[in-house]
Specification:
The complex is a heterodimer of chains A (about 375) and B (about 325). Chain A contains 16 helices and no strands. By secondary structure, chain A is mainly α. Chain A has a domain of about 240 residues. Chain B has about 325 residues and is α/β, with parallel strands linked by helices. Chain B has 2 domains: about 150 residues, Rossmann fold; about 170 residues, Rossmann fold (3-Layer(aba) Sandwich), CATH 3.40.50. In chain B, helix 7 crosses helix 8. Chain B is globular and about 60 Å long. The chains are: A mainly alpha (about 375), B alpha/beta (about 325). At the A-B interface, helix 14 and helix 15 of A face strand 2 and helix 3 of B.
């Protein structure tokens, strides 16, 4: 029998392990870049510069970050109740419909009324799309992984039907809705900064980022500072014990999925209300799925989720920059690099756990021994 | 001494001007989601760009978009990198190019498959797909032994209906008794890349008696050609010359010369004679035509060739006007 793995200290689990995973992924990517005949250090430099330095780079990075914060929070909320919500994609998609329907209905109202309602609409429809699988899990025992995946397909089909039929802009070749009324437009950051006299590059980066930061804080308060958050975590740790302690488990599951879907739905505030001002087919572009990797890497903690979102945002933006800079690095190559990082920080997240834990344990022991000796 | 100094100065000025000019011309192209090797639309553009680079030695900056937000970003990045002409590929880039061309009046822009924008620095290419489809419709009607021919479209949009409508008109002009079966693969962009469904639709048209099937369906068309070849029937290719994909079973291909549009854009921008506005390329402009090569020479009889050439001449001279579905959302043969 192998020796039991000593527990990993909290700081190592939260910081050291993700960093090691990232380094391992970057190392493998470096080898691949080397294999196709480019300089990996130079490539890394281009990525970092593209993501943070050049004019507009940071704006794009934060724009992608906003999406990942919302979908990452959606997955993390469900994780705390040990529910694996794979449906962020569909919930975000439906959130767009909610935002658009409210925006169209409130076209007459000033922004101060229309905008909050449109945001609420996004969260509400996203929540509805989370509640149904939640109900099926809680009351009917249908596994949440299966139902949420299925609900992604249903959401996609509904949106296809709407965008090629009832909601299609007349005379338009692409499947997209008519533009939303101006009253429900979330101002872009370059518009906000221009208003106070600071000129920054025009990018899709918009006010929904502030909403994402607010959502991170709300998430922290909800999970660790409220009775409901306690119930969610209790259900996640041990449903039987939670039930014995008087927590209504099915009800908690349904509410958790509502909140989870609501977070996912808020992605629409960035994509629909902030950037495109209309619904475009497939606008969710896989952000819902990447949210799973974000939550895993961020250890379901708001700070971790923010950092992981920033990382993925930088990868998306810096990756595009790689494609610009090197003719030999194609978009498929960029996808591969992103996939490596997801693989190491998501699927193989705990691969380095046993050796790292043993190493730390040994170091601590020898230090203690040295102190005694 | 004085003369030679002037000569040197002139030489220096001229070479400096040449260098400055050479530095100034920086072309860029933004391929869309299909990617530049999609064996269809984007690849046609790529071929035009390749030809331009081979002839002039000028490298063209390129980018393939992977999500919606990148279209505009890529165009802006190209401008920031000093591009003097930016070519957009496909109607999905229309909104992006409209915004970027408005914000950068000093840069030339060009886009393919768009004709509804209005910017002073933007050239737009539209093709008269109905005219090329008319020609292959004649070929289909004359090659059919069963008296039934088929059409398989990709995504159900006005553009593809224009293909179908031109085809129907061509078929009926050659033989009014020939029936035309028509199917669209779907209503979403996924319909451009679903060869299995393309094969299924083709098989069902063959079961209903069709023996020549024309496809305008992007990657889905590969399945159409495959299914027709498997059943020993004839298919008609689209966009690029697809005669080689199943020699002996591809009657002909309707050529949409996006490569010409791409090549012409770069060439004109380089020579400084970049005229903006809308260019409608039809048979008269060599923008659309039909393919005849060693792979289908045995399938096209002299009689068919003569009929197609005659119709092409009549379209060129204006004697035949092929109705464009997009002009009034209806087709006279329906």
């Amino acid at each position: 029998m192998s020796t039991p793995i000593p527990p990993l200290p909290r700081w190592a689990d939260l910081f050291l392990l993700p960093v090691i995973n990232l380094m391992a992924a970057l190392f493998i990517c470096g080898l691949i870049v080397l294999a196709i005949g480019e300089n990996p250090i130079e490539a890394l430099g281009v990525m970092l510069k593209g993501a943070f330095v050049y004019s507009g780079g940071l704006g794009y990075t934060l724009y992608y970050t906003t999406n990942f914060v919302f979908t990452g929070l959606a997955v993390a909320t469900a994780f705390h109740a040990m529910l694996f919500n794979i449906g962020g994609e569909g919930q975000a998609y439906l959130g767009g419909l909610g935002a658009a329907l409210v925006a169209f209905a409130m076209g007459w109202a000033p922004s101060i009324i229309a905008l909050p309602l449109a945001i609420a609409g996004a969260a509400l429809l996203g929540a509805c799309w989370g509640v149904i699988p939640g109900y099926l899990q809680a009351r009917r025992g249908s596994h949440i992984v299966i139902t949420t995946i299925m609900f992604n397909f249903i959401a996609a089909s509904i949106m296809v039907w709407l965008l090629t039929g009832p909601m299609l802009e007349p005379g338009q070749q692409s499947p997209q809705s008519a533009p939303l009324p101006a009253s429900s437009h979330l101002p872009a950051m370059h518009e906000i900064f221009a208003a106070i006299g600071i000129k920054i590059s025009s990018t899709p980066f918009n006010a929904s980022f502030l909403l994402a930061l607010l959502a991170l804080v709300l998430f922290w308060v909800l999970i660790w500072r409220t009775r409901l958050g306690y119930a969610i975590r209790a259900v996640g740790q041990n449903p039987e014990a939670a039930h014995y302690a008087g927590i209504n488990v099915p009800r908690t599951i349904i509410i958790t999925m509502a909140i989870s879907g609501g977070f996912a739905g808020l992605l629409a505030t960035n994509e629909i209300l902030g950037v495109s001002d209309r619904i475009i087919l497939n606008y969710t572009a896989g952000y819902g799925f990447t949210g799973i990797a974000v939550a895993l890497m961020g250890r379901n903690h708001p700070i971790g989720i923010f950092l992981a979102s920033l990382l993925f945002g930088a990868l998306y933006q810096g990756g595009a920059e790689l494609d610009f800079e090197f003719q030999s690095i194609t978009r498929e190559m960029v996808l591969l690099i992103q996939g490596m990082i997801i693989l190491f920080s998501g699927a193989l997240a705990y691969m380095f756990n046993p050796p790292l834990a043993r190493l730390i344990a040994r170091l601590t022991v020898s230090r203690r021994a040295a102190a005694h000796g | 001494m004085k003369i030679s100094l002037t000569a040197i100065l002139t030489a220096v000025t001229v070479s400096a001007a040449t260098i400055a000019w050479a530095d100034e011309f920086k072309p860029a192209v933004i391929y869309d989601m299909g990617g530049k090797f999609d064996e269809s639309f984007n690849e046609g553009v790529y071929n035009g760009i390749k030809r331009f680079t081979e002839e002039t030695g000028v490298e063209v900056m390129e980018f393939e978009v992977t999500n919606e937000a990148q279209r505009q970003q890529a165009m802006e990045r190209m401008v920031q990198r000093g591009a003097t002409v930016v070519l957009g590929v496909g109607f999905a880039q229309a909104d992006a190019i409209n915004a970027v061309s408005e914000a950068n009046p000093d840069v030339n822009f060009s886009i393919i498959d768009v004709n509804w924008l209005d910017q002073p620095n933007l050239r737009q290419y539209a093709f008269k797909e109905q005219e090329g489809s008319y020609l292959v419709g004649i070929a289909a009607a004359m090659a059919s032994e069963t008296g039934t021919v088929g059409f398989v479209g990709g995504m159900d949009i006005p553009l593809i209906r224009a293909f179908a409508c031109g085809y129907q008109q061509g078929v009926k002009s050659a033989n009014a008794d020939v029936a035309v079966l028509e199917n669209m693969t779907g209503t979403t962009p996924a319909a451009w890349n679903d060869p299995a469904k393309g094969a299924e639709l083709t098989q069902s048209q063959i079961d209903r008696g069709a023996d020549v099937i024309y496809q305008a369906a992007g990657g889905t068309g590969v399945g159409v050609i495959q299914a027709a070849a498997d059943a020993g029937k004839l298919a008609i290719g689209v966009d690029s010359n697809q005669n080689h994909m199943a020699p002996g079973n591809v009657l002909t291909s309707m050529l949409k010369r996006v490569d010409v549009a791409a090549y012409e854009t770069m060439k004109d921008a380089m020579s400084g004679e970049f005229e903006t506005g809308v260019r409608n390329l039809g048979i008269a402009e060599d923008g659309v035509s039909w393919a005849l090569d060693e792979h289908n020479a045995d399938l096209i009889s002299d009689e068919m060739k003569a009929a197609i050439e005659a119709a092409a001449d009549q379209i060129r001279s204006g004697e035949i006007v092929v109705h464009d579905y997009r002009s009034d959302s209806s087709c006279p043969t329906d």
